[in-house]
Amino acid sequence: xxxDLSRRGQEPAVVLLKTVAFVIGxxxxxxxxxxxxxxxxxxxxxxxxxxxxxxxxxAITLLFGLAMRRPVRRPRPITVKEGxxxxxxxWFVFSIFGALPYLLTGEISTITDAVFETASGFSTTGASxxxxxxxxxxxxxxxxxLTQWLGGMGVIVLGVAILPLLGTGxxxxxxxxxxxxxxxxxxxxxxxxxxxxxxxxxVITLIEFFLLWAGDMDGFEAxxxxxxxxxxxxxxxxxxxxxxxxxxxxxxxxxxxxxxGISFALHFRAFSKPGEYWRSSEFRLYLLISVVAVVIIAGGxxxxxxxxxxxxxxxxxxxxxxxxxxxxxxxxxxxRPALQIMVVGLMFVGGMAGSxxxxxxxxxxxxLTKAAFADIRRLVHPRAxxxxxxxGRRITEPVVEAVQSFFLFYMxxxxxxxxxxxxxxxxxxxxxxxxxxxxxVAASIGNIGPGLGDVGPAANYSGLPDLVKWLLAxxxxxxxxxIFPVLVLFTKDLWKR
Length: 497
Hints:
Layout lengths: L1 H43 L3 H22 L10 H18 L2 H6 L5 H12 L15 H16 L1 H8 L7 H8 L12 H24 L5 H12 L16 H14 L3 H9 L3 H4 L1 H21 L5 H16 L14 H10 L15 H19 L8 E2 L2 E2 L2 H32 L5 H12 L20 H15 L3 H4 L10
Antiparallel strand pairs: 1-2
């Protein structure tokens, strides 16, 4: 009897693990197909050895994916907690398998660096251990850019859009993976919503590709930068990011970084009704923050540069930071200290909920600000019934509490990880300064990429201790999934009935 009770007590965990395995297996099949496309690119450029090893990586990933799907013949509907657990585990798993092309081709030689680069790609962080991305083969460079494009809108959301079987729990999976406070439903069935979101994402990427190709980028460069702009990822093909490209190219990328920071559901609605943009209070706040940031940075650069250069550098880098893209047209670690403080501040803002941007998001910034003012008024009028409003719309208490909880966890992780990284570095005698440590953590959890100091735009993350790289790679995934899908994995309630 005790044995029967023990088995029954384990059933929820077993069922959960089978559900998780099925979804992860499905995602790995998508990853394998993506690797095949990178192998084809390598073969097209006559890089046959590289193509062979990328194909081997795809085969290994495919076999593991099929094996993980096999125990579940027909998946049942996915609950909310299963959705969070599935997404939380999935991103760590496919970040490991996504490292195979780097390792097997030998273009990144260590497991730590390969997983770091892959996690940075899928999470659209853009932090790199490479000193010169231009030295990569075309197939690996394509794979590097493709990981960001897939991670931008979400690999699992793509699975929901394509696989009918995942549609049984599509909303729960998308809720855990989609960046923002809650995924917008454009149609009653979330599978159709996922298709529309991916469609608008692909169409805007294609438009940017043609505009970049019309400038001084060749077709391959235009494709990679279109991938990594729309995903707000920031991986490029040159060591100096975008600084070596023309003024035209910089302005095109600036515009599309701003576009990528807007909710894609809003883009879809605005295609037929352009006025939808201005009706969105979050869009107006996002626009205001972007304009103010550009004006302040341009003012700080004005004395040392011509007006045209100051405005262009301010617009490009302010939008890049606000949207957490991480492209650079100049080395902001050389700016005066006041502007560097501005750089760090923008790392915490982010674009709109439902965009591909990272960090806190403008919706949460707006709600936190309104809630704070409401609390101040409550001190003056203790008996008043005060309602938090954002853009004229009432924000319910559960939403306010959720936003405050997210902000608390975000800042707690930022401060705790900063301490841990500094502690690890102190014991390994690497000699990282506080600016480097703080900005590296902020850039990782906010999915920005370059920071300041030894991880600034002119440097990379290769000099960090391996343990720090693993920690930051995990932090990138935690930041991309907006904390809770990962934290929920460590709760006892998840594994109980």
